[in-house]
Amino acid sequence: MCCYINIASPASYLSVNIHVAKMFGLNTAVYWSVVSEILDRVKDKKTVDQFGFFKIDRKYVTAKTTLTTKQQRDCDAVLSESGIVLVDSTNLDRISVNVGQMVAYIINSDVAVISDVTPVVNKKAKAPASGKSSTKLSEEQKEAKLLGMRNSVFKYITETDPDLLAAYRNWIDSVVGNTKANGTTAKLFQESIDSYTTDKSVKIQLINYSALRAYIDSRWAIEYYEKNVVNGRNNTEQKSGQIVGVNSDVSF
User: Fold this and answer.
1) For the packed helices 183-196 and 162-175, what is the interaxial angle rounded to 10 degrees?
2) CA separation for the pair 169, 154 (Å, rounded)
3) CA–CA distance, 168 with 56 (Å, rounded to integer)
4) pTM of the model
5) What tens digit of pLDDT does each residue of 157-194 get?
6) Helices 111-124 and 135-154 sit at what angle, rounded to 10 degrees?
7) Hey, where are the domains in the chain?
8) 84-112 pLDDT, tens digit each
9) Which fold would CATH assign to domain 12-102?
10) Alpha-carbon span 200 to 10, nearest angstrom
C-alpha cells in the first residue's frame, strides 16, 4: 500500500505553465518548470555567480522530466532566441535565466492571462471614487506607458541588422523599468558595443548578457565576456601550444 501512496504523492507530479506551453511547446514548458525549481534552490544556496549563471544537473532534469540532454539543450536554444535563457559558451550546462523576460512574454503574448485575472480583481475591488479610473483602466495605462517608453528609447538605436535589432529590443525590454533608461543611455550603449567589436556574433552575445541581467551599462557584459570567453579561449590555445612544443623537443 505504501508504494502506491508514494507513486500517487504530489512529489511524483510536475506542474506545467499552460501559457508557456502554448508559446514555446510542451517540452520547453516542462523544462522551464524544472529550471525554475532549480533556480529557486541555487539562489537559496547562493551558488549563482555574479553574472547570474548556475549549473544545470542534466541527469536530474532527465529524471524529473524524461527529457534527454539533447532535448534539454534544444529547449535552451528555444528560450535563448527569446532572450529568456543565456547559455555559457564555455560550459553548455551553465545557464542564466531572465524570469522577468518570460513573464513579459506571457503577459504580452497571451491576453487570456489578463482577462482571467481582471474579473477576480474587479470583483474584489471597491467601487472607484468619483473622478478616479478603475483598476483595469489603471493597468491599461501602465502598459501603454511602458510601450511608449520602449518605443521612445528604441528609436535611438541606429542599427540596421535585423538580428542585432531584435537583440537590442530584448535589451530595451529588460531595462525600460530602470529610471536611467532613456534615449541617451541607449545611444551610449550601442556606441560602446560598436566600439568594442565589429563581430556580429560577439555583439549579440554582449547585448544578450546585458538583457539577461538588465545591465544598462555594457561594461559588465564586456567584463564577463573577456573573463569567461576570451580568457578561456586563450588558455585553451596556450595549453595546445605547450603540447606542440613538448612534441617538437622530443623529436631529435
Assistant:
1) 130
2) 7
3) 27
4) 0.51
5) 888 888 898 889 888 888 887 667 788 888 899 999 99
6) 140
7) 12-102, 145-228
8) 888 887 888 999 888 877 777 776 654 44
9) Arc Repressor Mutant, subunit A (1.10.10)
10) 47
